[in-house]
Write a structure and sequence with these properties.
This protein has about 400 residues and is of the alpha/beta class. The chain has helices spanning about 1-25, 40-45, 60-80, 95-100, 130-140, 170-185, 230-245, 255-260, 275-290, 305-310, 345-355, 355-365; strands spanning about 35, 50-55, 85-90, 105-110, 110-115, 120, 145, 160-165, 190-195, 210, 225, 245-250, 265-270, 295-300, 320-325, 330-335, 405. Strand 5 (about 110-115) and strand 6 form a beta hairpin. This is Thioredoxin domain-containing protein. It holds the Pfam family Thioredoxin.
Length: about 400
């Protein structure tokens, strides 16, 4: 009897200690876990998916989001009660200034997504509703790998694809592949061929992993991974280099995040029926202009969907392709006498932006005689068409949605 009493007492003491330790490292006010310098690293390391709301109590947008995020956290906990799967957390940026600085928070609220302890390439910018948050979590936790059943199954040619051929799903190589796929599923489609059907695609007991570019990219971007397929770091670096290309496609969905990077845009507006011009542009940039990626974001844009910016330049879809630099103040059109197929002309265009020449000519007009149009035999400058104001600046984070902590672009 006495022995049972002490056993029960010891169990209760253990539960009390465990509960106290958990609450110390995971203080909860509401349903979202309040993160601080004591528990943030442990939380990130011990969960597959962590979504963090960085907020300030004085920010009205943060105040609107708080009850929504708390309810979403409660529903997610009901859907995924198992430990280590998913956590919705929150950081008070006025209190936890070191964490806010670590994650480079420049606006409130900012919702960061972390997968396997690492920040995702994109933060959450979707609808701020309970249903949207829950749906986002469910999508993030879906299996990122699509298994193909035959050698003749076709991958999506509209998207960048990473495909691996494995002996079985229990292998270390497959588990590493899955982890990489989880990190990059928003940038590439991941396919796997497993088992006897795909033995012809790889030597015995050896994994083959390939990258296949989308149909608007040159075939030279087709690569086979040459490293150790069981090494996460090397495979992740290789896949990231391929899935996050030097030349990206800008859309209405990703414009906010790309604009927030702060680099001027060098835009290649194309007609959706003309894929060859995109391939050529990507090949030129990839071959000759890699060193310029620190100065501009190289982007392609569907000239039919983005007809409005072209109209500001006096251009229509029949004028495509059109090359433009958007500095977030003005849109500068590629000189008519220049040829985008010549990489030196593109390089000069970027140099002219940074030397101030494009801006000076905006205010003072063309500075070279060759740029002056002769009208009716008289040496009079043609009426200047001033560069329009930036269009893409308007797609940056809005003051109607965020409290911005720094000057606008």
């Amino acid at each position: 009897m006495n022995q049972n009493y002490w056993k029960i007492f010891a169990n209760k003491l253990f539960l009390l200690f465990f509960s106290s330790a958990y609450l110390f490292y995971n203080p909860v006010t509401g349903n979202a876990v309040k993160l601080n310098s004591q528990n943030v690293d442990m939380t990130l390391a011990s969960n597959e998916l962590v979504i963090i709301n960085f907020y300030a109590d004085w920010c009205r947008f943060s105040g609107i989001l708080t009850p929504i995020f708390e309810e979403a956290a409660a529903k997610v906990s009901e859907l995924y009660p198992e430990s280590g799967k998913v956590v919705l957390g929150k950081v008070d940026c006025d209190t936890e200034t070191s964490i806010a600085s670590r994650f480079q928070i420049t606006k409130y609220p900012t919702i960061k997504v972390l997968i396997n302890g690492q920040p995702a390439k994109r933060e959450y910018r979707g609808k701020r509703s309970v249903e949207a948050f829950v749906s986002f979590v469910q999508k993030q936790l879906e299996d990122p790998i699509q298994e193909v059943s035959s050698l003749f199954a076709k991958a999506d040619v509209k998207s960048r694809v990473v495909i691996g051929y494995f002996e079985n799903k229990d292998s270390q190589e497959y588990q590493v592949f899955r982890k990489v796929a989880t990190n990059l599923k928003d940038d590439c489609l991941f396919y796997a061929g497993v088992g006897e059907t795909f033995r012809a695609m790889h030597p015995p007991n050896e994994t083959i992993i390939e990258f296949r570019p989308d149909r608007a990219s040159p075939k030279s971007e087709h690569h086979t991974f040459r490293g150790n397929s069981a090494d996460y770091d090397s495979l992740n670096i290789w896949a990231t280099d391929n899935c996050l290309p030097l030349v990206r496609e800008i859309t209405f969905e990703n414009a906010e995040e790309i604009t927030e990077e702060g680099l001027p845009f060098l835009l290649f507006f194309y007609h959706p029926d003309d894929l060859e011009s995109i391939k050529l542009f990507k090949e030129i940039v990839g071959t000759y202009l890699i060193q310029e990626k620190q100065r501009v974001n190289f982007l392609t844009a569907d000239g039919v969907k983005f007809a409005h910016p072209l109209q500001h330049l006096g251009k229509r879809h029949t004028d495509l392709p059109v090359v433009v630099i958007d500095s977030f103040k003005h849109m500068y059109q590629f000189p008519e006498k220049s040829d985008y197929k010549n990489h030196e002309h593109l390089k000069t265009f970027i140099d002219d932006l940074y030397s101030g020449k494009l801006h000076r000519e905006y205010h003072l007009g063309p500075q070279e005689i060759s740029a002056i149009e002769v009208i009716h035999g008289h040496n009079q400058p043609a009426e200047q068409t001033m560069p329009p104001e930036s269009t893409f600046k308007k797609l940056a984070p809005s003051k109607n949605r965020y409290t911005l902590l720094k000057e606008e672009l």
